[in-house]
Amino acid sequence: MITTSALVAALALGAAAPATAAAPAAVTAGDATAGPGDIVAKLPISSYSALAVDSVHQRVYVADKRWYASDKGQVLVYDFEGRRVATLTSTQPVSGLALSADSATLYVGERTGVAAYDTTTHQPAGRTPAYEANCGRELAFSGGRQWLTRGNATYESECAYAAHGLDSINGSAYDVSGWSVTGRMLLEAGPAAGNRLFMGQARNEKALDPALTSFDTGGETPVRGASRRFADTEGKGGLDLKDLAVSPDGRRLAVADAAHGTRLLDAGDLSDAPVPYQPLPEGAVASAVAFGGDGKYVARGASASGSTPDLLIQPADPADGTTALEFAYEGDLDGNRVVPRGLEWSADGSRLFAVTTNAAGSAFWLHIVRPPAAQYDARFTGGLTSTPGQAVVGEPVGIRGRLELDGPAPAEPVRVTAVRTDADGTRKLAAAEVAADGTFTVLDVPARVGESTYTLSFLGDLTHRPAEDVALTVSVAKAPSAITLTAPAEAVKGDNLEITGKLTAQGRPLPAGITLAVQRTDRQGTGALTSAAVAADGTFRINDLARVRGQVTYTVSYAGDDVHAASTAEATVRVRR
After folding, report:
1. Residue 115: beta bridge partners?
2. What is the Cα–Cα distance from 317 to 487, expressed in whole angstroms?
3. CA–CA separation, 255 vs 248, rounded Å?
4. Residue 511, preceding bond cis, omega within 30 degrees?
5. 99 near 75, Cβ under 8 Å?
6. What value does the mean pLDDT take over residues 84-106?
7. What single string gives the DSSP state of each residue in 346-410?
């Protein structure tokens, strides 16, 4: 579902405008009239490698990630309102993006070089050949030159532990630095970092205690500065790096560590900052981090499920105890988690750009978030109830509850999501709209006998945090069945006696081919008669020869099945001479 229900625009993407087309008018990044909101654009790519934000021209660049040499990589270009305005297509796979300091040029990593594009016209502006890198590249600017990674492998799966080297481009000069690591490299720099380039080693099967280091890039060759590994003496706690970010003042380095959370380090010696960030919510695994351009906020991306937040926006100063803004992404309109290296801010801090993906990592969304001034709490109150009192297979069940929202009333109705878990697994149910008084009803039709547990979530919206999930277990019984009989009051001994009837049941339709057991009880005892076949409309007939005088009782029984309960009916006939 779209979590920011009050102010979301889910954009349908048609064909991209030509690279030379004039860009549509965009709202000024700091325009207060725009107000808080979350614009969501579905990205027409099935892979992802990098995100870059040009605040001068108000453009967002998203690069896909491909492997085969014949693949044509793409860089999608969006404006700050989520409209796709251009597509840059390469003749080979692309990965890694970097903007020049003045945002005049976009640099795109390619398999055999680095391509440049004019950010005003989106036209090619040159290309520098580089040693081949079929494992993809990272790009960064530091010390007046461009830095790029290089790694190669026979198969894409081997890239995780293949050797990756650090090279640089200075004008037309290409230099191999000689620095390399086992596994992928992540690079981070930026204006605030000065002549420092940060390099992190991705965790892999050959590097269980990866390194994080900085380089002084002010000279002819990079000089390694502070370096750190994080495993303890027993080899536990090694870094599982997903993203890096330098604070706008250059004093802090934030690290998205999937094994630990969001680490905050001193950018000079890489020691722990005096005050750390609070842990991510339970169940959330760090995937991305980015500081706002104005230094006020930090965004922390994660991979989480249900109502556990995938994105937190909070004061960049960890000593500021202001409660974080929380966003949970779940479903086909939002994605399920923030991708590694998937967060960037506008220069003035008014917009956060977040790339999310689905559970399979095969579909991607671009969120453009204008954070509200505050978020308010939400909670389920009063517990959950179900109707009817006894749930049966194949009949509607209502799960009723109440959601309480603090702060101003939302501009549009919010929705509660739900899943049902039974012996067959977990199934997502239709979301339920919350009424003005906070009440809601989730509807379901149970599919099997036994216990079904309904877990309800409110994923939050732009101005409300996600609520803690609530659950209710419902006992589901077989659907009742019933037999009705129509028999004569009297019959004559020796004559044919006919009884008609009908079998009905709640829930699912009765299967074809049902037969009913028939039993006769008279003065001579009790015995079984020929079973009665049930027609498609549920009707049946029983024929018998009245053999003795007196009261004769006919008992008709349905044995039931996996989802229908058994039933019995009796009819008594007086047989006379």
Report:
1. 108, 127
2. 85
3. 15
4. no
5. no
6. 95
7. -TTSS-EEEEEE-TTS--EEEEEEE--S--B-EEEEEEEEEESSSEETTS-EEEEEEEEE-SSPP
The SS3 of residue 85 is strand
Structure tokens at 34: 């725009």
For residue 252, give both structure tokens. 């802090």
Answer whether 140's CB lies under 8 Å from 117's CB: no
Distance CA 426, CA 404 (A): 26
Token pair in block for residue 516: 């009913």
- pLDDT per residue over 474-514, tens digit each? 999 999 999 999 999 999 998 999 999 999 999 999 999 99
Which tokens go with 453? Answer: 């547990």
* pTM score: 0.74
The residue length of the chain stands at 577
Q: 562's torsion region: left (phi>0), alpha (psi -120 to 50) or beta?
A: alpha
SS3 state at 33? helix
Report whether pLDDT(1) > 70. Answer: no
For 46, 127, 261, 362, the CA distances from 65, given in Å and listed in that order, are 8, 19, 26, 11
Of 451 and 546, the structure prediction assigns the larger pLDDT to 451
Please give the Cα distance from 3 to 458 (Å, whole number): 9
CA atoms of 523 and 67, how far apart (whole Å): 87
CA distance 400 to 308: 22
